[in-house]
Amino acid sequence: MDRKVVWNHYTEENRRELEQLAKGYREYLNKGKTERECVTESIRLAEAKGYVNLEDVLASGRQLKAGDKVYAVCMKKTVALFNLGTKPLEEGMAILGAHIDSPRMDVKQNPLYEDTGLAFLDTHYYGGIKKYQWVTIPLAIHGVVVKKDGAVVDIVIGEDKEDPVFCVTDLLVHLSGEQMEKKASKVVEGEALDILFGSMPLKGKEKDAVKEGILAILKEKYDIEEEDFLSAELEVVPAGEARDCGIDCSMVIGYGQDDRVCAYTSLEAMLEVSEIEKTTCCLLVDKEEIGSVGATGMQSKFFENTVAEILDRMGQFSELRLRRTLSNSRMLSSDVSAAYDPAYSSAFEKKNTAYFGKGIVFNKYTGARGKANSNDANAEYLGSIRKIMDEHKVAFQTAELGGVDVGGGGTIAYIMSLYGMEVIDSGVAVLSMHAPWEVTSKADIYEAKKGYMAFLKEA
Ligand code: MN
Ligand code: MN
Predict the structure, then answer these.
(1) How far, in Å, from the CA of 258 to the mean position of ligand 2?
(2) Mapping DSSP to helix (H, G, I), strand (E, B) and coil, where does residue 431 land?
(3) Are 86 and 125 part of one and the same domain?
(4) Which of 160, 271, 342, 400 could disulfide-link 49, Cβ–Cβ 3.0 to 4.6 Å?
């Protein structure tokens, strides 16, 4: 059973739409290199479509009713959007979920040091990375520094053409005899991922003169002191913009496509499908890459609490109705899939693998070592999803993440399934997943958005 590549079916009109979506997507990637930036950009797009902050609704004492569009934010890193339908909420929602955190290097709390006239920022990597991929490429720093008085200083260095960039150094090959014999996991060790930050000494200083020079610049440009690093969240990411990839411009190369490719297409679908009976929801969450932990991860009560607030504002809250709302909901939990790569064919099983250009991917299960820690979606649910996709002419494929016992991974699906709701993993195929620059197919991006729209209308 072979699924077809979808490109050949496209009309001129389809291709125009596809290019427009890809353009918006590249802009979203460029503006959202951290979870905070993604939340800011998602809110900007949502407000333009009439969404209002739930906090403002609560403060005003106003009730909510069908047709209202609201969003709720958790600590500036996770956002949930709701388009309230005409049906009672307890009949369930159609939920699109994706994550907006990506693998990167986080600057440590006490990061700045000088060694032999070079200054570095020490980092602790976040999420699963092949550490050797992060050396010698231009890097940018995005994040916030929070001062003791609560002032938040936004930092983006390395994206403007006039900005400096940063890097992690590597040993030249002529001296690498010993290094080249090491296992790939040891070639570059986590503690060696320090960011080259400066080299010019401050005039008149003897000790740590380069570090002193840097502190003077930080003071002048950003009004921050060394101690302010203690309450900062600075993320080191690849510098530069997302680009078209391939001579035919059929693909997108960019940082953080896991999982912003699903986040953006889910958000776009959410904002476009306006008239609905069943309430729709788009949930963009943080901390997936480190186990969905913390207040802003999927395991947090944030989502449940938000649904409770909405029920309350609709005059419908009860504990039982909250539980029914959640258990009667249906969800596409979206995360990227590993695209088949002919250079690494042994990692895949060809019949059950995602391919570029074959559309949105559904993973009945993920997990590793005998499906462990997977959300194994119900066959009945999968049947209804197939029907929706076919009726809306959405190209889809089914896949596993690599061959049996090759590896595996988790998503947020299993957490939402705990409410007893129908959840299936879905998403977009990615080449070089978790690398600084990941690649996706524009056809799959286009089909994903179509698939999400179909789901919101029919689920
Ligand atoms: Mn992911
Ligand atoms: Mn990931």
Answers:
(1) 5
(2) strand
(3) no
(4) 271
